[in-house]
Amino acid sequence: MAGAVIENLSNQKLSYILGLLFLVQIAFFLVGAWLAPKPTSSMEFLFRSCIDANVTGRNWVDHQNCHEIELAEHKPLSYDLREIVFMTQMPHKRDNQQLRYHPSFQFLLGVMQPEIRSTAAFKHVRGSKLRLEVRMGARGGGDEKWRDWIEADVVRELDCHFPWGHESGDMHCDALDFFEIGYVPFPFYVMNIRIPIDREGCARDPKNTANCDLGELVGLNMVVIHQNGGFTMVWAWMKTIVVPFLFLTVRWYWDRVQSLARPPLLLEKAIFALGVSTTVLDLPIEWLPLWFERVPFMLLLGDLRQGLFYAVLCSFWLIFAGEHLIDDPTRNNLKSYWRNLSLVGTAGVALLVYDMCERGMQLSDPFYSIWSSSTGTKLAYLSIYLATLFTVIYFSFLFYKIWMVWKLIKQKRSNQYYQNNESRRLKVEAIIFRFKFLMLFTLLCAFLTILSYAMKQHGEAQLHDDEPQESLLTNSTSAFFTGTFGMWNIYVFLLLSMYAPSHKQYVGAQHLMDETEELMDGSAESNPMTTFLKPSSD
Amino acid sequence: MRRLKILFLLLFLLVDVIEAVGWLSVGLSSANLGKRSAGTFCKELKTLNRRQQRFCRKNVILMDSIRRGAQSSYTECQYQFHKRRWNCTLLDPLTHKVIGDVLLLEGTRESAFVHAISAAGVAYRVTRDCAKGLNDACGCDQTRHEIPETTRETSLHSIVPRESKSEFVSEGCSDNVEYGNMISRDFVDAAEKAHGKQKNSTSAQAEQTIINLHNNRAGRQALKTSLRRECKCHGISGSCEMKTCWDALPSFREIGSIIKDKFDGATEVQVVLGEDRPHLKSKHNQFRRHTHADLVFSSPSPDYCEADPVRGILGTKGRECNATSIGTDGCDLLCCMRGFERRVTVVQEKCNCKFVYCCKVVCEQCTRSIERFYCL
């Protein structure tokens, strides 16, 4: 990469470009802050308890035909209490209008919060299991009747505790992951849940039989989360606008690399891979659910694209730092990085396994959760711990490598040979500048990503307050989403355009940092970027 | 003639005042809307004042929630006070009339509690019923459009129908306790405002109105602060990169306990007529100033020992007490040192039950004597 664009750019031009990109970054942020609503919404559904003596029937209980009972006053009709149906219809009516779910919601996530009371007669035993027979029906806009959609037998372990200072009575139960549906094909849904009690099982082995040691079930409370349609629109449009730019940049970059007289370098290939994976991440597949009815894989696909981007980004950093170890003879060979890259690979595969087991399985059974079985929990913990471990090793290694590069830079500068040979000095200074520029820029992006993550957490954790003191920052979670998205796109865009081979030199360009290369003609000596760095090296 | 007119007016006002918490008896009525019109249904709820009648006709669909809110408030009040001399008997079970006049006219601590718990109860039940899908009229998250309670003029028309459908698709509809609080404000506070605004209401009544409104608001505030923030992470591989939070309602028992704590720490206040609007000032300056969330009262409570039907005090004669306790339910305190009697009853009970395969439970009959103590 003899002479990347960045080395041949005047200070003035570079600052213009950076300034322009800074404005673009602010635009990304403002799009989120002004145009987009909150990314997600939740709606609460308290199940009504109805009587339906027709236990084996396939009929649906909805608001119209629910014979509501008070659970505490109910006299059991059957042996297993199957006649009680917990029912809810989604979404609610609000302001006297029937709301409808929309395909642009992308996904529906359900969280179940059972309300449990522990009394002397019905004692709650820690870690008891709740088993629900769930039937979910759906209805289109023109349909009269509910159609069968999903059926599942759900078992979850409860985690309940008494509020501070109480020893009996109402308990606080942790929310249970209930379902994840990666598309929203119908506007209306109904859910019927029966909670059968196997009395013989309870008498024999209450520990391992579900629904025995629950305590008194007071009610079922479900929260359903979806992505807001307005946010989806802003997000999809933003991607639609960004992706052609990025695609063209990647093409331009690769054309430049291809037109060199030598085969592409590893670093150039790495930048290209990063550009491609970012383009894949930017493809606006959010439009798909609006065009096609059945696309249940939106959540999984989103995870895969994001995972790919992170894996390529991490690999790129490693290669970039490695390729700047100027005297390392093993450079420019992917094989020499296999040990380092296997860190990224293993972490990525571990998370992929977890994701396929959780969200992949949910394609066939949305009520599936890897955490509900003991083997599944072990597997999930194994993959997450493995991924965490390898990520930690990766970053320690990356920082070690960066530190090595810094040390090398210092060493080079104090080197006698380097001091005497002017063209050699300029060459090394160019490499140093290139490295420093990307380092600082990467650090800035990483810092801003962490900051925006923190702001998102902070904004969401705030209790609803109707006092107007709520600041802009806690209210604009969307702005942090669009801002971070824009920032990484700008990062990749800048990499592609700044680290592309400069056309001023590329005809005669040789291997990167070739020691024997006949160096630096007149144009390089007047290179402003290397002189720009000079004061810091003295 | 003129004097007679004033007397008549006063009598009329007295009736009006007595009904300030009178709407609580809505909780005991088994009235269901059925096929009746809103007008006749609301007229049957005689304890509502004019403003509340108007609210009822406009939002008749909410009246069932309000009825159950009143019920749970009353049950909770009796639970919180079952160990005390005043055990929150407010409604005559036969006549369905409010009997605790002390509450309404004297502005005691107990009155503060009843106002707070009933305002919270209505808000709680309305919120729960919205989550159940029982009320089609429920609104979405009002926080974005809301003006703080202090400056807001309560109106009965505040439930403005919006273009919910398209708004829901675009930005969702997170429902929380705000809607319930708004209904509570409109309905429960209407009980006070009606005579608070009358020109010729006496200053004592106006003061009582201010105190009652304050306590209503403190009750709703207790409900709001009792909310638990729960979150779900749903980013890549379930990470917290994407996170959605909501406010979970606790059980009403918890809210009752919070208000009971506020009852124990209530502040005695007097109404001071300022330049623009009257405000509440603590009677004892050495104590910390009360906040919007604290309960306030204006007159000390009686000891509730002896029955005084005129003031609506039942007395503690005949109440069951705990001979071994040294707390408020102990026989000494509860019976006001008048002494107590011991009664032993023998009961037949099922005991030593066995589960027989399959499927019945066989028990033995046991006799057990139970010792109970009652105030003289």
Explain what the structure shows:
The complex is a heterodimer of chains A (538) and B (376). Chain A has 538 residues and is of the alpha+beta class. Chain A has helices at 11-35, 199-204, 229-258, 266-282, 288-291, 298-323, 338-360, 374-414, 416-420, 422-461, 472-475, 477-498, 522-525, 528-537, and strands at 40-46, 48-51, 84-90, 93-94, 97-98, 108-118, 129-139, 147-157, 160-161, 169-170, 172-173, 176-181, 188-194, 216-227. Chain A has 14 helices and 14 strands. The longest helix of chain A has 41 residues, at 374-414. Chain A is elongated and about 100 Å long. Chain B folds into two domains: 2-140 and 175-226 and 249-315, no CATH class; 317-376, 2-Layer Sandwich (Endo-n-acetylneuraminidase fold), CATH 3.30.2460. Chain B has helices at residues 2-18, 38-44, 50-58, 63-80, 101-106, 109-132, 164-171, 177-188, 190-196, 203-225, 252-264, 331-334; strands at residues 228-233, 243-248, 267-273, 278-282, 296-297, 320-321, 340-356, 360-375. In chain B, strands 4-3-5 form a three-stranded mixed beta sheet. In chain B, strand 3 (267-273) and strand 4 (278-282) form a beta hairpin. In chain B, helix 6 packs antiparallel against helix 11 (252-264). Mean pLDDT of chain B is 76; it is low at 1-19 and 142-162. The interface between A and B is large, with 69 and 59 residues. Chain A: Residues 228-503 form the Wntless-like transmembrane domain. Chain A: Residues 50-227 form the Wntless GOLD domain. Chain A: This is Protein wntless. Chain A: Belongs to the wntless family.
